[in-house]
Structure formats: structure tokens, C-alpha cells
Amino acid sequence: MTAEAVRIEGLHKRFDELEVLKGIDLTVAEHEVICLIGASGSGKSTLLRCINLLESIDAGRITVLGREITARGVDVNAIRRQIGIVFQSFNLFPHMSVMRNVTIAPVKVLDLSAADAETRARELLERFGLADKADEYPDRLSGGQQQRVAIVRALAMRPDIMLLDEVTSALDPELVAEVLDVIRELAAGGMTMLIATHEMGFARDIASRVCFLDDGVILEQGPPQQLFNDPKEDRTRRFLQRIVDAGRL
Amino acid sequence: MATPPELYQDQPGDPRLPDGDRGSKLLAPLRAEGGRSVAIAVVSTIVFFVVLSLIIVNSPGWDEVKRAFFSRTQFKDSFPGIVRAFLVNVRLFMLSEVLILAFALVIAVMRSLPGPVFFPIRLLAVIYTDLFRGIPTILVIYMLGFGAPALGIKGVPDSPFFWGVVSLVLVYTAYVAEVYRAGIESVHTSQVAAARSLGLSRGESMRFVILPQAVRRVIPPLLNDFIGLQKDTVLVSLIGVVEAFRTAGIDSAATFNFTPYVALAVVYLVITVPMTRFVDAMVARDRKRRQTGGGL
């Protein structure tokens, strides 16, 4: 029995009139790779942003590595140190070099010396084929390179859990593979991940479990083979059918 | 393969972007149309200005105007004194500018503090900017420059220079704070999300991520405000600071001639016209950069 990384209980989130999450329950074991699939607006991104406390929640409880992060008075910055998030739109800091993008948080938050942070950054950049980009600025990189830098930036904090929010959706098709390869490598290394994605083939490949979100709830979840080949719910089947029709699976 | 535009934009030596053309659209179309257009423009310009100056010089009363405003001897006599006195304006301006840049940043950051706890701080910042953007500068200068020393409170300085700086700082801080605020708000919230998600605190996100981007974007409007400030330093003469405007006034009153004022105008134009052009060029460059999809 592996340890529990994330436990989400009865999570509700509304934006004004619109209830986006209507009671999410989900438990993620360490080293598990969870893929969240579902139509746009089904709540995948919001769920990830709640886990990282980028959104306040209206009801429910989130526990990360045994600590309830939605309790009052928790140190938000300390929790975020354990959880890395990568966004659809990269969100690199445009006024900083790649090296500074990757080292700023370790230096300011973890109090690493500049030299140590740089060593750590170089190792990561090397590992993901970005060693020669350390001194470039983000606007000189391709989308795929930017997204890999964003992943490296999150990894530089040595997080226990990574949240990936549709990280390939803003990329040109020919750049998707290089980013997915990075994620595969992370999964192989045992990183606990929650991945919101539209790449069904990738989800089938990498996920230990797939969750289908529909209208703010996890309608169905299971191992990828079962969920993709033999979905129990009608809605899941219709969603997957649309994807197949669009030639995306 | 096309070179990305960002590569050459910043290089002043680039032949495609002659410096004079960057800000103004006056010459560019001519150049595009070729030699014949340029020749026509040159001839028509010469003819136009020759005719115009003949009309002016031959108008009735021109001699009086010339004597009162453009007297060569008057100009020569008072110009050096005015330039020397202008150094007081420069000091007023420099000192005020440094203080304004710092205080305005504080006000702008105060105004962007989130959450209900900071409501009074935000309110204070709003009241301050409303107040000092809404009052004519000259009123502030009068009230402080004459009013504050008249209180006779111990320790309150009575130097008009001091109160002149205080007034200019109070008024321009309100304007510059709004410029900063516009810059802060122009940085997309996803940048904050990225910074906070890495564990940076609110203050660190502001300092390392938001402000550097915000300030870079508002440099042209900041410079515009400072051109305004340079011109407004003459207002301080009204509470007794002997600076360039006051000196020109003394010269003028002594001779019943307005040439000293024209001399001061010349000093100002020498400084403000190049600065204005420079700002225009920056704005044009920024616009071009944004169109080509560059970052900042």
C-alpha cells in the first residue's frame, strides 16, 4: 500500500453564479499519474488551481501529503513549494532569462545560494535538452521550448506533486511531442502528477488512472484501458466518440 | 529566411529606421514616393516659408513686435543670467523627480493591495490621488509656500525652495502613481499566478515579477509627465524662488522688453522638443514591437 499524496473531499467551487466544481472526491496515491479528461469548462483547470490554492474553495477539504491545506491559517507559500504547476500559456517571466526564470524561486523561497540554484537549474536544463538556452529570453524560444522551461522552473523547486494544466493545448502540433516526452520522463521517474489534458492517446499511454470530468463532477474513473475501451457511463462514451470522430484518438 | 524584427529594432545604425523618422510620420511618405516628390516638397517648402516671412516682416507693427520680443541686444544681455538661473529649475526638477518616482510607486502599490484588511490603505491612496489630481498646481504651491511658513510652527522650514519641491512632489506623485498603476494592471494576472505558484510571496511577486514589467511599459508616459514637471517648475517663482522665470521677469521689468521671456522659452524648447521626440520614438518602437509579437 503506497502513501497517499492528495485527498480531495467534497470540493465545491463557484465563480459568482456559476458553480464549476460540484462535489469532487478524489484520492491520489504517491507516484500515481492521474489524467483528467473532459470537455472544456468541465472543471479540470479549476480543480488543479484549487489544489495549488490559486483559487479559494467554497466547500470541502484538500489534504496534501497528510496536511490539510484548506484549513485556516496554513502557510500557503509553504504548501505551494511542494506542489508544482505548469500552465497552458507557459507564463514564463518575459523580463528574465531562462536561467533567472528557473532560479528565482529556489533562491528567494528555498534560500538556496545563487550558485547552488544555478547548478540545480543547469542539471535540469541539460536533462530536458535546454542547456544551450540558459541565457536566452523567453520570447526567443519556440512554444515547446518555453513550455519545457516552465516545467523545469516548476521542477527546480523539487516539488512532490506536479499539476499540469493542458500544457500542450497552446502548442503547434509538431511541438507537442517534445513536451509530452518530458512528462513521460517525469512519470517514469515516479513523479506524482495530475494532468488535465485533451491528448487522449497520451492519457491512455501514461495514466495510472483516468478521470472523466463532466459538469463539475468526476463522472467516471478507472484504468485507461477500461475507461477508453469500455466506459460505463453514456456521457463518457459520447465524449470519447466525439474525440474519435474528430480524429484525436 | 526573414530576420525577426526584434533583432535590429534597437540598433540605431539600422538604415531602414532613420532616427528622425521613428516618431514622426512627416518625412516617411515622401521618402517612399521617391526623388521627384522630395524635390517638389523642398521647392514648395522654400517658397511657402519665404512668402510667409515676407508677409510677417512687412505687416504693420512688425517693428514694434521685433523690438519687444526679439531684441538682439536684450537677448545677449539677459540670456547668460537666465541660463544660470535655470540651474535652479534643474535642481527643483531633479530633486522632485527622484522623490516623485519613489513616492508614486508606494502609492501605486498601496492602491493595488488586495483584500478587505487593506481597504483603508487603498482608500487613502484613492483620496490622495483624487485630491492632488483635482487641484490646480498653483493653488498647492500658494497654500504651502505662503501658508506653511506663516504658521510659525517651530521646526517647519520657511524656505520657498523647500515648499516648492514639496508642492511639486505632492501634485506630480498623484499623476505618476496613476501611471504606475496602469502599468501594474497591464501585467496579466497569469504572471501573478505563475509567481505565487512557485511559492513567492505577494510582495516578492510584486517586486520581482510585476513591477519590472509594469515600469518598463510605462516609461513613455512617465517621461511625458516629467516634461510637464520641467515646465511647471516655473510656477515656484510665485512664492519667491529666484529661478529662470523670475530672473526673466526682473530683466523684462527693468527694460520694458519681453525678449528675456523669449530667451527662457528658447532654453525650454532646446530641452523639451528633443525629449518629446524621444518619447514619441519610444512609443512608436513599443507599438512596433508589440505588433511583431515581442515580449516587452
Question: What keyword list fits this structure?
Answer:
heterodimer; A: 249 residues; alpha/beta; Rossmann fold; 6-stranded mixed beta sheet; 4-stranded antiparallel beta sheet; 9 helices; globular; B: 296 residues; mainly alpha; MetI-like fold; 14 helices; flat
Give an overview of the whole structure:
The complex is a heterodimer of chains A (249) and B (296). Chain A is 38% helix and 25% strand. Chain A is α/β, with parallel strands linked by helices. Chain A has a six-stranded mixed β-sheet with strand order 6-7-8-3-9-10, with helices on both faces. In chain A, strands 2-1-4-5 form a four-stranded antiparallel β-sheet, covered by helices on one side. The longest helix of chain A has 16 residues, at 173-188. The mean pLDDT of chain A is 91. Chain B has 296 residues and is mainly α. In chain B, α6 (72-111) crosses α14 and α13 packs antiparallel against α14 (259-291). Chain B is flat. The model of chain B is unreliable at 1-23 (pLDDT under 50). Chains A and B meet through α2, β6 and α3 of A and α10 and α11 of B.
What is the CATH class of chain B?
Answer: Mainly Alpha
The rounded distance between the terminal residues' Cα atoms of chain B is 24 Å
Strand coverage percent of chain A = 25-35%
Q: Give me the number of helical elements of chain B.
A: 14
> For the report, how would you describe the main beta sheet of chain A?
6 strands, mixed
Q: In angstroms, what is the radius of gyration of chain B?
A: 25 Å
Low-confidence stretches of chain B: 1-23
* Oligomeric nature of the chains: heterodimer
Structural class by sheet pairing and helices of chain B: mainly alpha
Work out the strand percent of chain B.
Answer: under 5%
Low-confidence parts of chain A lasting 5 or more residues at pLDDT below 50?
none
Provide the succession of SSEs of chain A. Answer: EEEHEEHEHHHEHEHEEHH
Tell me how many strands of chain B there are.
Answer: 0
* The top level CATH class name of the domain at 4-91 and 161-245 in chain A: Alpha Beta
Termini separation of chain A: 33 Å
Helicity range of the residues of chain A? 25-40%
Question: What is the CATH superfamily of chain B?
Answer: MetI-like
